[in-house]
């Protein structure tokens, strides 16, 4: 199972408010841009992670998760499934509490490794869809 309601609720309401969004750039036509905007509206701090390390939505960007100089609670992944497993492994190594793979991003082995490391994990879901549904 890629995502259960309790895990979704726990990540969105109890895991923490610092979200590293991997694949977020200042390209307004990309899904990551709009999703990050929704997360901010619901009180999350959005940290852009992209090779360009661009400033997006008022937050400094970083080229990789390892470059972020402060703790990250959730790693939200907007890269394709072939690259997502390495991002999940990096999320474990930086001490994140949860990993969220966006719609269409699926890597079952990465999910198993991430959960085995003690992190919450959601795949093939979008927090911008799920968070308003919580009625917060």
Residue ranges: pLDDT <50 for 5 or more in a row? none
The rounded distance between the terminal residues' Cα atoms is 25 Å
Strand segment count? 5
The secondary-structure class comes to: alpha/beta
Helix content: 25-40%
Write up this protein:
The relative contact order is 0.20. The mean pLDDT is 95. The radius of gyration is 13 Å and the shape is globular. The protein is an alpha/beta fold and 136 residues long. Strands 2-1-3-4-5 form a 5-stranded parallel β-sheet, with helices on both faces. Helix 3 runs parallel beside helix 4. Strand 1, helix 2 and strand 2 form a beta-alpha-beta unit.
Short summary:
The chain has helices at 5-14, 31-41, 81-94, 108-116, 127-133, and strands at residues 18-22, 45-49, 74-77, 98-101, 120-122. With 136 residues, the protein is of the alpha/beta class. Helix 3 (81-94) links the parallel strand 3 (74-77) and strand 4.
Give a topology summary.
Blueprint: H1 5-14, E1 18-22, H2 31-41, E2 45-49, E3 74-77, H3 81-94, E4 98-101, H4 108-116, E5 120-122, H5 127-133
Helix pairs in contact: 3-4
Provide key terms for this protein.
5 strands, 136 residues, five-stranded parallel sheet
